[in-house]
Amino acid sequence: MKKEKGIIFLVEDEEDIRKLVASYLTEAGYDVYQFGTGEEMLPFLYRKLPDLFLIDILLPGIDGFELTKELRYRSETKSIPIIILTCKGEESDRVLGLELGADDYIVKPFSLRELLARVKAIFRRQKKFAPPETLKCGDIILEPESFKTRVKGKEVNLTTTEFKILRLLLENEGKVLNREAIITGTYGYNKPIIDRTIDVHIRNLRKKLGKEGERIKSIRGVGYKFSPE
């Protein structure tokens, strides 16, 4: 298979699953580092940083939710994408993971082909959202090259997915984007609209952007738009 330039940190306490996933992703060309716990993985960040985290929720010690929260708190990992792996399929658990900063989730049991598709989508959109043009609207300045967002000159800490949604809205300022367009433009594939994923990210964006977040308008029954006024 064609080699991909991507480093993945896989944190999964079930050895059989961890080895199976790591083997499959390695065969697909990714450089996979395996960890059984969050405590084992965190010190390794001082030696190397990944391009993507795959984190199981039900970990011993620091669970996946706390680990996601910790990674989003650290400056060196706050912008690295996170996919959570979980057997907890309830909507409340998925929403919590997204609110803590995860970019995507996949519920166990999952197919390895689906997992690989999600991973590839993450890497595709990482490349897609790397151009240098700075976007400005009102008091919001978004710098794709440095992956920074500022409101009134103050840097705002956005997750990878929040950054991509905001960029999509700014690039289409004044236009209404339906949920399918936002999901496809953000995730790189048409994820089934069966949950509140986009709603959660939009709510987080509005909160983080403060007064400027009011520019993100909900169009009932359609989607969202970024208002120039």
Shape: globular
- Fourth-level CATH superfamily of the largest domain: Response regulator
Ranges with pLDDT <50 over ≥5 residues? none
Task: Quickly name the level 1 CATH class of the largest domain.
Answer: Alpha Beta
What does the average pLDDT come to?
Answer: 86
Question: What does the largest sheet look like?
Answer: 5 strands, parallel
CATH topology of the largest domain: Rossmann fold
Give Rg in angstroms. Answer: 17 Å
| Count of extended strands | 12
The strand order across the widest sheet is 2-1-3-4-5
How many helices in DSSP terms?
8
CATH architecture verdict of the largest domain: 3-Layer(aba) Sandwich
Terminal residue distance: 49 Å
Spell the H/E element sequence. EHEHEHEHEHEEEEHEHHEE
Helix content: 25-40%
Specify the structural class.
alpha/beta
| Approximate strand percentage | 15-25%
| Count of all domains | 2
Description:
- One of its GO terms (cellular component) is protein-DNA complex.
- It is a single chain.
- The protein is of the alpha/beta class and 229 residues long.
- It has helices spanning 15-27, 38-41, 64-73, 91-99, 112-128, 160-171, 179-187, 197-209; strands at 7-11, 31-35, 52-56, 82-86, 104-107, 135-137, 140-143, 148-151, 154-156, 177-178, 216-219, 223-226.
- The strands form three sheets. Strands 2-1-3-4-5 form a five-stranded parallel beta sheet, with helices on both faces. A four-stranded antiparallel beta sheet has the order 6-7-8-9, with helices on one face. The chain has a three-stranded antiparallel beta sheet with strand order 10-12-11.
- 33% of the residues are buried.
